[in-house]
Design goal:
The structure holds two protein chains of two kinds.
Chain A lengths: L12 E5 L5 H9 L3 E6 L23 H6 L4 E4 L5 H12 L3 E4 L5 H4 L4 H7 L4 E6 L14 H7 L20 H24 L3 E6 H8 L5 H7 L16 E6 L2 E6 L3 H15 L20 H12 L4 H10 L3 E4 L3 H5 L2 H5 L4 E4 L5 E4 L4 E3 L17 H8 L4 H9 L4
Parallel strand pairs in A: 1-2, 1-4, 2-3, 4-5, 5-6
Antiparallel strand pairs in A: 7-8, 8-9, 10-11
Helix pairs in contact in A: 1-7, 6-8, 7-8, 10-11
Chain B lengths: L4 H6 L8 E5 L6 H9 L3 E6 L26 H7 L3 E4 L5 H12 L3 E4 L5 H5 L3 H7 L4 E6 L14 H7 L2 H4 L14 H24 L3 E6 H7 L2 H10 L16 E5 L6 E5 L3 H10 L14 H6 L1 H13 L3 H10 L3 E4 L3 H6 L2 H5 L4 E5 L3 E5 L24 H8 L4 H9 L9
Parallel strand pairs in B: 1-2, 1-4, 2-3, 4-5, 5-6
Antiparallel strand pairs in B: 7-8, 8-9, 10-11
Helix pairs in contact in B: 2-9, 9-10
Classes of the chains: A alpha/beta, B alpha/beta.
Chain lengths: 407, 420
C-alpha cells in the first residue's frame, strides 16, 4: 500500500458497474484519488478469470488484465437483477457523482434503475454508459468486442503489412479508447453538473471511439483527396522517409516531417556514406517533395542504418535532432533507461503475497499526485465497509443478503 | 444523439466560460484544445510562422502545383477546428509580453514544444503562475520533461516503436506491426485532456492550479499495461497473437467476397459457437467433442478458421456481419474510411460525422468527437482559419488593444501579419 498525497479527484465518488470493456475508466478515476466502488456479480467479475494469469490457473483470480484495470478501487458484490439488489444500487447511486456502466443499452431501464429513475433522487448524477455501438441506432443491440470495434472503426484496415490480412493492435485499444473518452466526458459533464445542478447521460460507443482515434486515416482526409488509406507496413504515407529500417542487430524506426530534420538526415547520410545525390536540393522541403522518390530515399537511409547497431543509430541520430527510435520488445521496455530514470514502473504488495510491478501514469500532476493507492480488490472485499459502515445496513441484514445471493 | 441542429445550437455547452491558450503543433497537443473547444471552451492557439504546425504544411495530392495550403488540410480541421488563431513572434520580448497578457485571462495553457523551449521564451510555468496564480499548465512531450532522453525528437509512430506496441501487435511471423494512424498521438491527447480536467476539478474545489507534464512514451506503455505486467512478473515477452485470442475461438479477421474485403468475427462462448455452427452449415459440430468446449476450439482453431473462411469467402462482408449479428455473434466489417461514410448505417443514424463550416471550402465533414454528452452536446464552431485570423477579436476585444496598438505591434514584428 502506498502512502500517497491527495489526488486531484479525492472526494469524488464513482460507482462502477462495468465488465472488462469499461473497467479502465474506473481505473483512471481511482488512481487520481476518486473513491471508486466497483460492483461485481456475486462470485466475482468473469474478467478475473481471463488469461494470462500472474499465478495459478483460471479461478485463482489473478488475471493480469483484471489486476491492471482495477487498481485503487474498492470492491463490492451485488446482483442488480434482484429487487433487493436494485434497491441497494439506487441507494449507492444517490450519493455518487458518476455511475459508469457497460450493460447492453436499455438494460438498466428494464431493471428500473436507468438514468430517468436515478436522476429523480440525484439530479446531479452523471450516468456514463460504455457500449459497443452506443445507446441509439439500428445496431445498438448488436454484439461487440474489442476486435469488432477496431474493425468497424477503421483501425484494422490500416494496420500491418499490405499483403497480410488486417490485424488488431495488442492490448484492447478500442476498449481503452472508449474508456478514455468516457472518463473525459464524465468530468466534462461533472463540471456542468457542479455549475448547473443538472447531470446527464453520457453515451459512449466503442466503435465511435475507434473511428475517432483513427481519423488521420478517416473521412475528412478521404473526402478531400479521394485516396483510401491502406495498411502499408511501417512507413507512414504522408511522411518521407518513415518506417522501420535494418541495422546490424535489429530495427530502428525513423520519421521525417520537418524540412530541417530532412537536412540533418541528408547531411549524416552524406558524411557517413559519401552519397552526394542525397544533398540534392530537389529533396528538400516538406515530405511531399520526396513522395515521388520514396524508394530511392529508403535505399539511402538503409545504406546508413546498416552500418550501425540500432542503439548507435538511435542516440547518434537523436544527437543530430533526427527522430530515430528503437523498435523495442517488451523486455527492452522493462529495462528502458529513460523509464527507469523517471521511475515509471511502480510496485505494490499484493495481499496474496508477493510484489507486482505496474506501469505508472503518463501524467505527473505536481500538486495532486497520481498514485496506485492499493491493488485490485478481492471479491467482495469492501462489502462491510460499504453496506454496513456507509449505507447503515445491519450485520444481520448483510448476512441475509449474502445468504440470498444478492451480495 | 440525433438532435436537430437548432436544438444543438440552443443547448448549453459544458466548458463554456473556460479559456485555453495553446502553444502547440502536431496532434498530441492540439487535439486536447480541439476537444475542449468542441465542449464550449474558448481555445486560442498561438502560432508562429517560424515554426508552423506540420498540418499547415499541407500540399494537396490533387493539386501539388499549388504548393503549401495552410488552411486547407483535412488534418488541420481534425486537430484544430473550433479554435481562434493568433500569430506571435515569441523571440521578441513584446510578443512574450502579449502572450503573458493572454495567459492572465486564461484558465489553461497547453504546450507540446521540446523540453525547455517554453522556459527559454519566458513562458514557463514558474513565470506564468506569477500572472495567473491558479493556472493549469499542461506540457506534453515525447519522453517527458526529465530523464536522459527528455530532449529527444519523436512523432507518433516513433512511440509505437519504442513503447513495445509495434512488437507486441501483429502476426507471430512479423517482427513488428505499425498503424497508419499515429495512435500514440491520439492516446496522449486523451490522457492529457483527462489530466487537465482532473486538475480543473481540483481547482474548482480548492482554487489551486498546478503544472502537469505528460510523456507520450509512457502513455503508450501504459496502454499495454497487462502485457508489460506479464513481462515484468514472468520475465518473458508475451506472444504476438495476431487477431487470435487466448480465451475465444474462433476469433479473427476472415476474407469476404471482393478485393481486400474482410469481416472480424469473435465467438465468445459455447452458446455462440453452437449458433455459428448452425449458420455456416455445420450443425453436427455442436456435439463434436473437438468443438464443444473452449479448450477444444482453441486446440482445433485451424480447422475452425478454415471452415469459417470457406463460408465468409463466398459472401459480401456486410452480409456476413448482418447474418452473424442476427444469430447473436459479434461481427464487424473491416471498414475503410470510405465505408465509414458510405455504408455504416449505425454511424449515420447517430449523426456521428460532423459537418463544419470551413472559411475557405464552405462546409467540410470530419469524424465526430465521441463524447456522447446528451445534455450538453458539443459542436465545432469553424474550420480553416488563416494564420492570424483572430487578431482583432483576441487582441482588440479580449485584451482591449486599440487598432493603432495592434498595427504598431504588427509593424514591430511582435504580432505577425495575418494571411490574406
Amino acid at each position: 500500500m502506498t502512502t500517497a498525497g491527495r489526488g486531484a479527484l479525492s472526494g469524488r465518488r464513482i460507482l462502477e458497474l462495468a465488465d472488462a470493456s469499461g473497467a479502465y475508466a474506473g481505473k483512471l478515476f481511482a488512481d487520481m484519488g476518486a473513491d471508486v466502488v466497483k460492483i461485481e456479480p456475486p462470485g466475482g467479475d468473469p474478467a478475473r478469470r481471463v488469461p494470462p494469469f500472474w499465478r495459478g490457473e483460471a479461478g485463482d483470480e489473478l488475471s493480469f488484465a483484471f489486476l491492471y484495470a482495477n487498481t485503487s478501487k474498492r470492491g463490492i458484490t451485488l446482483d442488480v437483477t434482484r429487487p433487493a439488489g436494485r434497491e441497494l444500487f439506487a441507494s449507492l447511486a444517490r450519493n455518487a457523482d458518476v455511475v459508469v456502466e457497460t450493460l447492453p443499452p436499455g438494460r438498466l431501464d428494464e431493471l428500473g434503475i436507468g438514468y430517468d429513475a436515478l436522476r429523480i433522487e440525484n439530479p446531479r448524477l452523471v450516468l456514463t454508459s460504455i457500449t459497443p455501438f452506443g445507446q441509439t441506432g439500428p445496431q445498438r443491440g448488436d454484439r461487440g468486442s474489442d476486435l469488432v470495434a477496431s474493425a468497424l472503426g477503421g483501425a484494422l484496415y490500416v494496420t500491418g503489412e499490405a499483403d497480410d490480412p488486417p490485424v488488431v493492435l495488442a492490448g484492447s485499444q478500442a476498449h481503452l479508447s472508449a474508456c478514455s473518452f468516457a472518463a473525459i466526458a464524465s468530468l466534462v459533464a461533472l463540471r456542468h453538473a457542479s455549475r448547473s445542478g443538472a447531470g446527464q447521460h453520457v453515451d459512449i460507443s466503442a466503435q465511435e471511439a475507434m473511428t475517432s482515434v483513427t481519423h488521420i486515416c478517416g473521412v475528412g482526409k478521404w473526402l478531400d483527396d479521394g485516396i483510401v488509406p491502406k495498411r502499408r507496413g511501417s512507413g507512414l504515407f504522408a511522411s518521407v522517409p518513415s518506417g522501420a529500417y535494418p541495422c546490424r542487430d535489429g530495427l530502428v524506426y525513423l520519421m521525417v516531417n520537418r524540412p530541417q530534420h530532412w537536412k540533418a538526415l541528408a547531411e549524416w547520410i552524406h558524411e557517413e556514406t559519401g552519397n552526394e545525390e542525397v544533398l540534392d536540393p530537389q529533396f528538400e522541403g516538406p515530405s511531399s517533395r520526396r513522395q515521388e522518390c520514396r524508394e530511392l530515399i529508403d535505399f539511402f537511409v538503409c545504406e546508413l542504418t546498416q552500418r550501425f547497431a540500432a542503439s548507435e543509430v538511435y542516440h547518434e541520430g537523436q544527437r543530430r535532432h533526427i527522430a530515430f527510435t528503437p523498435v523495442s520488445t517488451a523486455s527492452d521496455v522493462a529495462r528502458d533507461p529513460q523509464l527507469a530514470a523517471r521511475e515509471f514502473f511502480v510496485s505494490l504488495e499484493h495481499p496474496s503475497g508477493g510484489r507486482l510491478q505496474y506501469p505508472g501514469a503518463p501524467y505527473r500532476l505536481e500538486r495532486t499526485p497520481w498514485a496506485l493507492r492499493h491493488p485490485a480488490p478481492r471479491v467482495g472485499e469492501h462489502n462491510r465497509d460499504v453496506y454496513v459502515d456507509e449505507l447503515g445496513l445491519s450485520e444481520a441484514r448483510l448476512g441475509r443478503l449474502r445468504d440470498d445471493g444478492v451480495v | 444523439m440525433a438532435s436537430s441542429e437548432a436544438e444543438v445550437e440552443a443547448a448549453p455547452q459544458a466548458l463554456r466560460g473556460l479559456r485555453v491558450l495553446e502553444f502547440s503543433s502536431g496532434m498530441a497537443g492540439p487535439w486536447i484544445g480541439r476537444l475542449m473547444a468542441y465542449c464550449g471552451a474558448d481555445v486560442i492557439k498561438v502560432e508562429s510562422r517560424r515554426r508552423p504546425s506540420v498540418v499547415r504544411l499541407y500540399v494537396s495530392p490533387q493539386a501539388p502545383e499549388r504548393g503549401i495550403q495552410p488552411t486547407l488540410s483535412p488534418w488541420f480541421t481534425d486537430w484544430d477546428a473550433g479554435k481562434r488563431f493568433v500569430a506571435l513572434d515569441l523571440t521578441r520580448p513584446e510578443a512574450v509580453a502579449l502572450a503573458r497578457r493572454l495567459v492572465a485571462v486564461s484558465d489553461v495553457v497547453i504546450e507540446n514544444n521540446s523540453t525547455g523551449v517554453m522556459e527559454k521564451l519566458g513562458l514557463g510555468y514558474d513565470e506564468l503562475v506569477q500572472v495567473r496564480p491558479d493556472l493549469v499548465y499542461f506540457g506534453s512531450s515525447g519522453y517527458g520533461d526529465t530523464g536522459p532522453c527528455r530532449n529527444y525528437v519523436t512523432w507518433g509512430p516513433n512511440i509505437e516503436a519504442i513503447s513495445g506496441l509495434a512488437t507486441l501487435s501483429g502476426f507471430p511471423e512479423r517482427p513488428c506491426t505499425f498503424t497508419q494512424f499515429a495512435y500514440p498521438d491520439a492516446l496522449s491527447a486523451l490522457h492529457g485532456l483527462f489530466a487537465v480536467l482532473c486538475a480543473l476539478d481540483h481547482r474548482s474545489r480548492t482554487g489551486e492550479g498546478q503544472r502537469i507534464s505528460l510523456s507520450q512514451f509512457e502513455a503508450t506503455v501504459g496502454a499495454l499495461g497487462p502485457l508489460l505486467m506479464q513481462q515484468l512478473a514472468h520475465g518473458e515477452d508475451p506472444a504476438r497473437l495476431g487477431n487470435a485470442s487466448l480465451h475465444a475461438a474462433p476469433q479473427g479477421c476472415y476474407p469476404c467476397r471482393g478485393e481486400d474485403r474482410w469481416c472480424a468475427i469473435q465467438v465468445d462462448d459455447d452458446a455462440a459457437a453452437g449458433r455459428l455452427f448452425d449458420v455456416i452449415g455445420r450443425p453436427a459440430w455442436r456435439t463434436d467433442a473437438r468443438f464443444a468446449s473452449l479448450a477444444g476450439r482453441l486446440e482445433h482453431r485451424a480447422t475452425l478458421d478454415e471452415a469459417l473462411a470457406a463460408w465468409t469467402r463466398e459472401r459480401d462482408a456486410y452480409d456476413v456481419m448482418r447474418t452473424l449479428q442476427h444469430a447473436g455473434i459479434a461481427a464487424g466489417v473491416v471498414q475503410t474510411a470510405e465505408d465509414e461514410w458510405r455504408h455504416d448505417r449505425q454511424l449515420a443514424a447517430r449523426g456521428f460525422f460532423e459537418s463544419i463550416e470551413h472559411l475557405a471550402k464552405g462546409r467540410v465533414l470530419a469524424a465526430g468527437i465521441p463524447l456522447g454528452l446528451t445534455g450538453t452536446p458539443g459542436r465545432t464552431g469553424r474550420a480553416g482559419a488563416a494564420i492570424g485570423q483572430d487578431h482583432d477579436a483576441v487582441f482588440g476585444e479580449l485584451l482591449g488593444m486599440s487598432p493603432e496598438e495592434i498595427r504598431s505591434a504588427v509593424r514591430a514584428g511582435a504580432i505577425e501579419a495575418p494571411d490574406g
